[in-house]
Amino acid sequence: MADRAGTAPLPLDPRAVRTAATAADVEDAIRQCGAVLQEVGAVDGSYIEAMLERERSISTYVGEGVAIPHGTLTSKEAVRHDAVCVLRFPEGVDWHGERVTVCVGIAARGDGHLRLLSQLAQILLDPDRAAALRAATEVDEVIHLLQPDGEEDSE
After folding, report:
1. N or C: which end of the chain has fewer CB within 10 A?
2. Which of 70, 81, 96, 113 does the annotation list as catalytic?
3. Running along the chain, 155 residues long, what does each successive block of 10 average in pLDDT?
4. What pTM does this model have?
5. Are 105 and 36 in contact (CB under 8 A)?
6. Cα–chain center distance at 97
């Protein structure tokens, strides 16, 4: 477990967490993620199409019931500031044959998405943390689970 000093917390606004969302399908789930990123001022409306375009080229499913939808490289101009949103779908969404219960949408300027994806992968590929995230029903709990190692359990 490489604990990198100075790992910044994810740019996760509490207003960008939804713990009881429902979606008809992958496209609906991605549109909802994009809409939340837009609500918190991170992106303009064109980013949602870029997220759908990314999904059409390669699935953003990462395992453990989690998908990380994000835009294409050409959509950077649609991003106003880095942000992450978390939508929990308790009933699940069929994601190209996989069951997704947590979507973590990403918007980042420049190469920021690589840092965010790397941080999220470290957190979400831990089966215990992924399971806790899938079960989380409180916004504070979701935010706590998505903090980099070393930032949690400071009590």
Report:
1. C
2. 70
3. 52 93 98 97 96 96 92 89 95 97 91 80 84 93 80 41
4. 0.86
5. yes
6. 19
